[in-house]
């Protein structure tokens, strides 16, 4: 037997035993860990370091170009995983090099940013969150995993769960908004969707929760900027969302670019080892963000790449994304004793275990099925789901005089604006392998719906950005010729996402001028907004009778939005991030503190109160807000008791009646306020919600059960518990419009 075939036999006999294991993460780690150890024993130090290195292919780029010799590196056994490489043929080609040309034949993992769909693109994540529908969110990730794995991928850099309270930050589009509890539910749903019931299935992929930690709180909303906050805020608001993904069994974690209180995450031993591994018992692998180890030098905590590599390996990083820091420096660091070989072995073990869990040692080409690639991508069922998801993510912000839905009597419609017919923008940022040409625009959706019955005119009006007003008059004359106008305004897809912070979050360019000119025609005008973040649009709100927030709806955006505009579906989305009135109010979020000098609602500009001289404290649209074509009324809240023991259940109920003339879904929300704490407590905290379909005229009793333990928080000594005392409980249609009652815990 040659040495190579001997190694093959060891590697593959290990695998065969494991391929039949059904997984529980802990058992999996133990079972596969032993197999991984037996491979590690055969590896040279350089081969181990190779497993800890991740490189991008040249198929697409998601960061600064750093090196382009990834194929040679794979051949030299210096790569453990590749990202930005997909399609069956390409993945097969690269995998073949790894398993046929390297000494130990260890297969590669293939990763990609599958953020809101792979080929079938779903609404951006902030829009998905507005459905408050965790089952739909999970299903969308299931479809994304099926499509991605049908094209050779087996790892996504998702879910992105960074809690965000600052809409200037462009990456709010990738997250679930400002609430940690809701964010945690959504994070878990996403992990389940990607990873399914077993990673050994051929259509499930490794998840990667990111960006650990608190990347969503950069100062000034400027991407990559410093994060500095109290431990209490970190524990109470920012960390639980990652923890929810870890508890749901996410297979990997990505470090964030930012520092927290002076320590960059990628070299933060407390964060990566003490908290994540020791306290949270995370046993998957930790990857850096793109060249984050190298960035420890400009951060100013490492003098050179070797020091940076040492800091991050010793902090607990297992895999270096794109920076070559491990590749270039770890060997010497081990020789000098700065990094122990045990640390390296543990990292490699975690990576090999992930490869076992995927079944890559059984069949390195497991995700390379031409048949799947043909059949399981963008099929009719997936597109139908994408259409429904696009519709359900829409949030109706305003609808004066029930101007929406579009009346059936309308014979001519003008669809105007820079986003009326823009295929690429429908994708939003992080559009995976989505193809612009396959997207349905708003204009196309409306034409599909009205073909033969309504004349549809269109005009561009102006660009999204820039100061060219030359098209506005012509757009206004198109509006004048029409019975009804739909005005598509907002941001383009590159104005949110990574490295896309805005200091001003108003409508860009001359779009307000376009809106004024169109509204001045006196025609019924509905504004359809496309954007990746909350916008500050008080003037637009003031002047337009109706506004529908549609985010970037993905492949089927135009059809889904049209279903809402024409009333084929009743809007049901609700905001998961506050829309401020102006930038000066930021950060503005619903679960704020009262302060010692709270604003006087009767006299909002009273001196010596916590207010502004030139702006109200209240937002334009609050967290949880969204209208329907029907109306709902809420009865007073009933509680099973007024005073509870610590082990009692608190049961709150309310009767919700659909008082309008059509069926509709309502998201009923429950909030709590702890009136006196050991530390100050928010004025409201979301503790429950139910999304219910009510037929017209129907009343349903909506019941919530919470436990006193659900009211726990971090005390001055950082102990986590609830206090006896007085509480308020609110149920309502959003964080502002609620019915209130009170209870106490003895
Ligand atoms: C940088 C981004 O911050 C991260 O979210 C992404 O996964 C990587 N680039 C890889 O594309």
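^ structure tokens above, recovered residues below v
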């Amino acid at each position: 037997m040659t040495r190579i075939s001997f190694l093959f036999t060891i590697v593959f006999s290990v695998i065969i035993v494991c391929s039949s294991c059904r997984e529980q993460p802990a058992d999996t780690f133990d079972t596969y860990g032993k197999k991984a150890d037996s491979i590690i024993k055969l590896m040279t130090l350089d081969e181990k370091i190779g497993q800890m290195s991740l490189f991008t292919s040249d198929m697409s780029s998601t960061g600064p170009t750093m090196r382009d010799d990834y194929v040679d590196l794979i051949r030299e056994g210096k790569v453990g995983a590749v990202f930005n490489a997909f399609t069956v043929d390409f993945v097969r080609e690269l995998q073949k090099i790894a398993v046929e040309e390297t000494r130990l034949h260890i297969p590669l993992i293939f990763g990609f940013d599958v953020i809101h769909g792979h080929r079938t693109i779903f609404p951006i994540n902030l829009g998905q969150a507005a459905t408050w529908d965790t089952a739909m969110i999970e299903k969308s990730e299931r479809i994304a995993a099926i499509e991605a794995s049908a094209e050779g991928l087996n790892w996504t850099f998702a879910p992105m769960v960074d809690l965000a309270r600052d809409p200037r930050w462009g990456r709010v589009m990738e997250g679930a908004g400002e609430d940690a509890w809701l964010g945690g539910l959504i994070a878990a749903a996403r992990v389940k969707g990607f990873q399914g019931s077993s990673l050994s299935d051929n259509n499930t992929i490794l998840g990667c929760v990111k960006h650990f930690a608190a990347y969503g709180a950069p100062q000034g909303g400027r991407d990559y900027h410093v994060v500095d906050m109290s431990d209490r805020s970190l524990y109470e608001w920012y960390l639980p969302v990652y923890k929810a993904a870890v508890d749901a069994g996410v297979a990997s974690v990505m470090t964030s670019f930012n520092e927290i209180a002076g320590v960059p995450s990628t070299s933060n031993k407390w964060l990566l080892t003490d908290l994540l591994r020791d306290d949270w018992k995370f046993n998957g692998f930790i990857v850096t963000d793109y060249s984050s180890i190298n960035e420890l030098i400009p951060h100013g905590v490492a003098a050179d790449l070797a020091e940076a590599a040492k800091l991050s390996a010793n902090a607990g990083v297992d895999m270096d994304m794109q920076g070559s820091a491990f590749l270039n420096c770890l060997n010497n660091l081990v020789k000098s004793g700065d990094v122990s070989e045990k640390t390296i072995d543990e990292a490699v073990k975690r990576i090999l275990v992930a490869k076992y869990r995927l079944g890559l040692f059984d069949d390195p080409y497991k995700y390379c099925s031409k048949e799947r690639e043909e059949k399981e991508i963008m099929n009719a069922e997936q597109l139908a789901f994408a259409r429904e998801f696009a519709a359900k993510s829409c949030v109706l912000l305003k609808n004066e005089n029930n101007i929406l839905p579009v009346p059936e009597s309308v014979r001519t419609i003008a669809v105007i604006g820079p986003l009326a017919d823009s295929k690429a923008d429908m994708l939003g940022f992080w559009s995976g392998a989505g193809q612009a040409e396959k997207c349905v625009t708003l204009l196309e959706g409306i034409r599909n719906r009205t073909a033969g019955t309504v004349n549809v005119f269109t005009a561009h009006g102006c660009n999204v950005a820039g100061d060219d007003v030359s098209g506005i008059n012509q757009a206004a004359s198109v509006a004048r010729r029409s019975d009804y106008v739909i005005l598509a305004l907002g941001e383009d897809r590159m104005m949110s996402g990574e490295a896309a912070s805005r200091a001003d979050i108003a409508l860009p360019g001359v779009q307000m001028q376009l809106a004024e000119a169109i509204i001045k025609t006196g025609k019924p005008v509905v504004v359809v907004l496309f954007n990746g973040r909350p916008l500050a649009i008080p003037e637009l709100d003031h002047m337009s009778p109706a506004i529908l927030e549609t985010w970037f709806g993905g492949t089927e955006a135009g059809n889904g939005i049209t279903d809402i505009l024409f009333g084929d579906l009743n809007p049901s989305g609700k905001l998961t991030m506050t829309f401020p009135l102006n930038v000066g109010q930021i950060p503005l979020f619903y679960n704020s503190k009262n302060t010692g000098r709270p604003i006087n609602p009767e006299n909002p500009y009273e001196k010596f109160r916590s207010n502004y001289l030139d702006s109200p404290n209240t937002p334009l649209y609050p967290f949880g807000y969204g209208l329907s074509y029907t109306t709902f009324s809420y009865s007073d809240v009933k509680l099973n008791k007024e005073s509870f023991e610590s082990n009692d259940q608190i049961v709150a109920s309310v009767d919700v009646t659909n008082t309008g003339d059509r069926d509709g879904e309502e998201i009923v929300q429950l909030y709590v306020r702890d009136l006196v704490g050991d530390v100050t407590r928010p004025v409201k905290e979301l503790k429950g919600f139910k999304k219910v379909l009510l037929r017209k005229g129907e009343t349903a009793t909506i019941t919530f059960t919470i436990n006193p333990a659900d009211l726990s928080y971090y005390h001055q000594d950082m102990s986590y518990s609830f206090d006896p005392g007085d509480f308020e409980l609110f149920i309502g249609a959003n964080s502002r419009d609620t019915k209130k009652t009170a209870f106490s815990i003895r």
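The radius of gyration is 27 Å.
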